[in-house]
Fold:
Amino acid sequence: MKSLLAEDDELTRTIVKEYLGTFGPCDVVSNGSEAFRAFMAAHDEGTPFDLICLDIMMPGMNGQETLEEIRIYEEENNIVGLSGVKIMMTTGKSDSQSIMKAFRNQCEAYLIKPISADDLITKIKELGLID
Structure:
């Protein structure tokens, strides 16, 4: 499983990268703009990500905006249905408005910080990315 983690908090980045790294290569960026560029570059190289974990509160382009841009890119490039990347919001925002907005924008999972290895693995299994 190839993953991308977009997280501006260094400690969270280190911990979640370690969790994700046990399942395959994990690229790490610190904001939404970098995440979107990495997503597009992976597609251009023919090696798209299987999973993208997005923090919502990041400087510049936040996670919600990044999610929207990724889904627009997929639609414009006819990447539909199961061909699209699985996106998990990994955030401290637990309010219903943030959660509903993420799911309306087509995220597949939502994890509230602090993120445990067990919770992350459960969500990844639910997404069908690991056994």
